[in-house]
Write a structure and sequence with these properties.
single chain; 485 residues; globular; mainly alpha
Length: 485
């Protein structure tokens, strides 16, 4: 494997801190003190209006606060396509990271000023920045990372998300009280500043330079810096020649608008049909991860272990913390092996284990407290196996299926589709779980069985292959005589 250059290492660290780490922080920050935040919301409503919220209404409000993350992410993901072209990859990363600061500050000030609305506004701004960064990070990695380490850099996002989740679960222990919980947001300010400083030391993407400045000499030098080779190396020439070809292709392929790629009825040309199937496979992989339940269960882990598995509140928080610790070594698996074992292997294995673990969760809870350990271990299995498999691969797999001329628009749309699905699942699951209990797990088990079959049968291997080789593989599976290389 090619040794990564200093520029690639700094870029990867900056993208991890501003992207995956922030996502893990946002996704988990409400989890440790959720009992106290619910109480705070209820108290402020009572202080203002003299009424006490019902349990059902409070559950709905709490679900809405949680799904502010994917709601704001959708806005950010669609803004990202315009921002990447207007400000470049580097400018977009810095601007979106700056949005984290008012987000965390408003959230931390909500308690002392007795305004639960500030929690919603702060979470929206924080999540908006992360939505922009989610698209920008994927695009920047694909455009700058050598093929041999692209999977490793993509997997680092899931690994850094596990670190972010562990970090917030850990600091949540001393701050887990009725008065100290607002401090759980504050440490993120220093990390945001650190990531912005890192971005100052890396160049923009060479593709962005060509788009915005049309400076081919500068683009060659930047690409050579990321690859660690001479600016006149044949590899640089091949990449830049491809970029010129992609610019020409873009005018032809995007003429009706980027949405044609997701329209199964509007195009009949074989070449277009192959690209469309590749894009839809990217959609399937992203949605499949949402329906594993890993994200929803992580967001409500304390609730699951406390209310559904009947552990004590202290035990539930401890269990969430232990799983967060274990996600670190599990998250390293794709970082170290995704380019060796391949994307398909990790996705298929994690999906099989997820289906078994979800079934075991239902069995453990239905039998009762005598099988508490089975429920807890199966819950952990869903979290950990997806950190090592589908959850990690889904971050970048879709971006390896479409030509780079379509990369920004497609990545933005894919991320938006994933976020919409996430909103529907996470917003629905918590109230449903409060009503029907363990049977709410069927929301994850049944779709996971379906997606397991589809991914196993249809998803191509992308490891150490160019997008054009992947598209030709899909064409062969469809028995179409189409050439991309």
């Amino acid at each position: 494997m090619r040794r990564p250059t200093l520029s690639v290492c700094i870029l990867s660290l900056a993208l991890c801190v501003s992207g995956g780490f922030q996502q893990g922080y946002i996704a988990s920050v409400l989890n440790p003190p959720y009992v106290y935040i619910e109480s705070f919301i209820n108290e402020t409503v009572t202080e203002r209006f003299g009424v006490v919220m019902s349990d059902d209404l409070l559950s709905t409000v709490w679900s809405f606060l949680n799904v502010m993350f994917p709601i704001a992410s959708i806005v950010g993901q669609f803004l990202a396509a315009w921002m990447c072209k207007r400000f470049g990859r580097k400018g977009t990363a810095i601007i979106s990271s700056l949005l984290y600061l008012p987000g965390t500050i408003l959230s931390s000030l909500s308690y002392p000023v007795r305004s639960f609305e500030m929690l919603f506004i702060g979470r929206f701004l924080w999540s908006l920045g992360n939505g922009i960064n989610a698209v920008n990070t994927t695009v920047w990695i694909v455009e700058c990372a050598p093929t041999e380490i692209r999977g490793t850099m993509g997997s680092m996002q899931e690994f850094s998300m596990a670190i972010g989740s562990l970090f917030v679960q850990t600091i949540g222990i001393p701050f887990n009280s009725a008065t100290l919980w607002p401090w759980i947001f504050v440490p993120d300010v220093l990390l945001v500043i650190f990531s912005i400083v890192l971005f100052l030391f890396v160049p923009d993407s060479p593709v962005s330079i060509l788009e915005r400045e049309q400076d081919i000499v500068k683009a060659r030098a930047v690409l050579a810096r990321y690859y660690g080779i001479s600016a006149d190396a044949p590899e640089i020439n091949r990449e830049l020649n491809l970029e010129r070809k992609r610019t020409e292709d873009k005018e032809r392929e995007e003429r009706p608008g980027i949405l044609w790629i997701f329209n199964p009825f509007g195009q009949k040309e074989d070449r277009v049909r192959v690209i469309q199937q590749a894009a839809w496979l990217g959609v399937i992989v992203k949605i499949a991860y949402v329906f594993t339940g890993a994200r929803a269960l992580r967001a409500y882990s304390t609730f699951f272990l406390y209310d559904m598995a009947h552990f004590t509140l202290q035990g539930a928080n401890l269990g969430s913390w232990i799983v967060a610790i274990l996600r670190i070594p599990f998250g390293l698996i794709p970082v170290l092996f995704v380019d060796r074992l391949g994307r398909r292997f990790l996705m298929n294995v994690s999906m099989v284990i997820t289906v078994v673990a979800l079934a075991a969760i239902m069995v453990g809870i239905l039998v009762g407290d005598s099988l508490q350990i089975l429920s807890a271990c199966s819950f952990g299995a869903v979290m950990l196996v997806n950190a090592a498999g589908l959850g990690s691969v889904s971050r970048f797999y879709a971006a390896e299926l479409v030509p780079r001329s379509l990369l920004i628009g497609t990545t933005s749309i894919l991320a938006g589709i994933e976020a919409v699905t996430k909103i529907a699942v996470e917003f629905a699951w918590f109230p449903v779980a409060n009503i029907i209990g363990v049977y709410s797990m069927l929301m994850f088990l049944v779709p996971s069985l379906v997606f397991l079959v589809v991914i196993w049968a249809m998803c191509p291997e992308t490891s150490n292959r160019s997008v054009f080789e992947v598209l030709e593989d899909i064409a062969r599976r469809k028995k179409l005589k189409v050439s991309f290389t």
